[in-house]
Amino acid sequence: MFIFLLGHDVIIAQELPRFENDTLYTSSGYKLYKGQTLTFAEGTSKNGNFRFAKIKGNDSPSILANKSVVIDKISAFHISSLGNAFIRVRGELIKKNGEESRRINFNLAFDKAIEGLQGLAPELIVPQEFKNKPLKGIANEIAKLYKLYQDSAISKEEYEIQKKKLLDQ
To answer: Fewer Cβ atoms within 10 A, N terminus or C terminus of the chain?
Structure first.
């Protein structure tokens, strides 16, 4: 059993998002990098704004709706104490119907944008193979617990108890 649990932690560690060599590797395996085109769906808040993409500057929060952005630069990767991962994106907003493209900057909670949250649709459109699966959801929850343990927000005993509950589901 110990080997299973240890092996499970190693698998989880491989699924944590990371930022290396100007490429962001998300928890689902989807990559963000310079030159890549990100395609957005609709915002999921009540007023149609985005929950997981926060626009910098004076642009309307809904400016990304059903649009694409070609990434020019990604930076400022960080994971919050709750396990939410963020990245800053600078890129070229590609407008439709003859409109001019323009520069845009935004912070992206990429895992949440890809997976959606609590029954909400994803805000970032990615291939089906990168969408959340039930086991990946459990792995993400355990990863969040482990981050809390690493940050001394919970004890090792509490981490083990909560991890066991998740694995027993």
So the answer is: N
pLDDT tens profile 12-59: 444 678 899 999 999 888 999 999 999 999 999 888 899 999 999 888
Nearest CA-CA partner of 128 in 31, 27, 30, 11: 30
Which residue type sits at 133?
K
What pTM did the predictor assign? 0.69
Name the residue type at position 155. Answer: S
Instruction: Specify whether the CB–CB gap between 65 and 124 falls below 8 A.
Output: no
φ, ψ of residue 156 in degrees (nearest 5): -60, -40
CA-to-CA distance for 142 and 164, rounded, in angstroms? 9
Rounded CA separation 79/140 (Å):
13
